[in-house]
Specification:
Layout: E1 2-6, H1 7-12, E2 16-19, H2 40-54, E3 56-57, E4 60-61, E5 67-76, E6 80-85, H3 87-102, E7 115-117, H4 121-131, H5 142-157, H6 164-174, E8 175-181, H7 188-196, H8 204-224, H9 230-256, H10 258-267, H11 278-291, H12 298-309, H13 320-339, H14 341-352, H15 358-374, H16 379-392, H17 397-405, H18 410-413, H19 415-432, H20 450-456, E9 460-463, H21 477-485, E10 493-496, H22 501-504, H23 509-522, H24 531-538, H25 545-562
Parallel strand pairs: 2-6, 2-7, 5-8
Antiparallel strand pairs: 1-8, 3-4, 5-6, 9-10
């Protein structure tokens, strides 16, 4: 049921405004409007002042002038008005009226004991201070920082208003809201979720967080309400929400860091949703995959899954706190993987260097999480063996290496196979130095032809002896013929990071060598971690038949050493 109310009528209601436990804290003084660019509160204040100017004629308000704000949705009881939607707007107007009152303007309603956050006692203290003209509180707490900034913005906004009383009268009489009252049978939490689902400032990530915190608070309320006083209950709920919200923000911050995000992207499942925050979507997908077993539509179903499966009105209830603990466990696993250099590098080999498709990656990631949970100590060796199994598949180690060594045109015939093995040689060297390989400079593609890789512009096999050879050393025709036959063999190939192949082109060896090492010093990218490539160039002064044949032997020996399976 909806009607129109001016702000005098809205704030004159004898009942208290309550911001429920499932809502986020006040943020309008910190958040920008995505369409207009300014802070939400700044835009509201500018609009109100502009309409105030338009509503005047010769220093008096125009009769029956009206300006409408967006709607407020409420759930009412005999003593309270629960703000289901519109708490940011209501809080902002409350603060503005407090500022005007403290500047001497008279209001037609009483602001005392008018506003209350259900589970944010510190915020309530700050609001009570505003009634007395006091703006204090710990700015390290986001809610308090936002409220204090709102007070300061309101004070600044009215500095150029000559007649504050006329402005206060205008706000009370001429500013109206669409007031929507929910019926008794309507579930306010579900209405909140539906109303906020498509708002730009509320992503699916925010909604999932809100839903879990809401249900956790509700479930805790049910467990504790018979044991604790209202004061004790509120303290417990505040403690729970604060801890869960802090953990959540820590996850978000962790994944936003460049290196952490690239690691998560390396493991990421398919995500086509624009609403789900990329740096947290992996966590949600892993949870659903592990504990539900299916999730075909991440784009439309992720929020719905969490909303429907942790509702306390369902017979098959999943405790919200349990959901959070499982999410925390998954996040801890990802952090432990990231922090362990060997695991990090082997994961990169499995997910970037085996040619796995999306479906295979999904299944692989779930299997690995379960394996890690069962036995952390042998997980690194399990990863190595898994990589070996993926590479060899139905082929024996002997047949695999022979197919590479004996192929005189391995560049064209087995491009992907060779590239993956040269990637391994670079990664293993990095691993021995206890450093993480930069997999962002290598992007696995399921292509088999060099032209496809070149189009992708992600990685390249480089001919150390160029395909178009310039006879600087004056080799005989016989020597040139022998050298030419080695051009596309494994001994003449190295893997170079994205962007470097084009620089090397068909330059002679000594120039290529200089370009490679100059790139290490000049590029911000981690070219310096491509240790096998650097070693191959750096350990030779020339590159002829003997060097190519010796490099082939190096490849063979290292392959045989690595592909010896050891017990987990």
């Amino acid at each position: 049921m909806s009607n129109f109310k001016n702000l005098r009528t809205y704030f004159s209601d004898a009942r208290k405004f309550v911001v429920p436990y499932y809502q986020r804290g006040y943020k309008w003084s910190l958040q920008k409007n995505t369409k207009r660019g300014d802070l939400h509160l700044s835009l509201l204040l500018m609009d109100l002042k502009s309409e105030f100017h338009n509503a005047q004629r010769e220093g008096k308000l125009i009769p029956n002038y009206e300006y409408y704000l967006q709607g407020i949705t409420t759930k009412e009881s005999d003593t309270e008005i629960e703000l289901v939607d519109g708490q940011q707007r209501t809080t902002s107007l409350f603060i503005l009226f407090c500022v005007l009152k403290n500047k001497g303007a008279k209001l037609d309603f009483n602001l005392e004991d008018k506003f209350n956050y259900a589970v944010r006692a510190d915020a309530n203290d700050v609001l009570q201070g505003f009634l007395k003209g006091i703006c204090k509180g710990d700015e390290n707490v986001q809610d308090i920082a936002a409220l204090k900034k709102a007070w300061n913005l309101c004070e600044l906004a009215i500095l150029d208003i000559v007649n504050l009383q006329l402005f206060a009268d205008f706000l009370q009489e001429n500013i109206k809201i669409i007031y929507i009252k929910l019926d008794d049978h309507q579930d306010e939490t579900k209405v909140f979720s539906m109303m906020n689902k498509d708002k730009a400032e509320m992503t699916q990530t925010d909604l999932i967080k809100s839903n879990i915190l809401r249900e956790a608070s509700r479930q805790l309320f049910g467990e504790l309400s018979v044991e604790l006083s209202n004061e004790g209950l509120e303290w417990q709920i505040n403690q729970l929400r604060s801890k869960l919200a802090t953990d959540w923000d820590d996850w978000r911050k962790w994944k936003k860091k460049k290196n952490h995000l690239s690691f998560c992207n390396m493991l990421e499942l398919k995500n086509s949703s624009k609403e789900v925050e990329p740096n947290l979507s992996l966590l949600f997908k892993l949870y659903i995959k592990l504990y539900n077993g299916k999730m075909n539509d991440f784009e439309n179903g992720m929020f719905e899954y969490f909303k429907d499966n942790i509702s306390d009105k369902e017979e098959t209830i999943i405790e919200a706190i349990e959901v959070f603990e499982k999410l925390r466990l998954l996040q801890n696993i990802l952090q432990e993987w990231y922090n362990n250099v060997t695991i990090y590098n082997y994961l990169g080999l499995v997910f970037k260097g085996c040619g796995l498709g999306l479906k295979q990656k999904e299944e692989k990631l779930i299997d690995l999480i379960q394996a890690y949970t069962s036995n952390k100590d042998s997980f690194a060796q399990l990863l190595k063996n898994d990589y070996i199994n993926q590479i060899l598949e139905e082929t024996s180690k002997e047949d695999f290496i022979k197919s590479i060594l004996d192929d005189t045109d391995v560049y064209h015939n087995k491009y992907a196979m060779v590239a993956r093995q040269l990637l391994r040689m670079n990664v293993i060297r990095t691993n021995k130095l206890k450093q993480k390989f930069d997999f962002t400079l290598y992007e696995e593609q399921n292509y088999n032809q060099p032209d496809d890789f070149d189009k992708a512009n992600k990685r390249s096999l480089e001919h150390i002896k160029p395909q178009k050879y310039i006879n600087i050393t004056k080799l005989s025709k016989l020597e040139l013929d022998k050298l030419e036959k080695l051009t596309n063999t494994i001994g003449n190939l190295v893997l170079v990071p994205s962007g470097l192949n084009s620089k090397l082109s068909n330059e002679p060896f000594h120039k290529k060598k200089k370009i490679v090492f100059d790139s290490i010093n000049s590029e911000s990218k981690n070219y310096g971690l491509w240790l096998h490539t650097l070693e191959t160039f750096g350990s030779h002064s020339d590159w002829l038949q003997k060097e190519i044949e010796n490099n082939k032997i190096v490849f063979e020996n290292e392959f045989n050493t690595f592909f010896k399976k050891t017990k987990q």
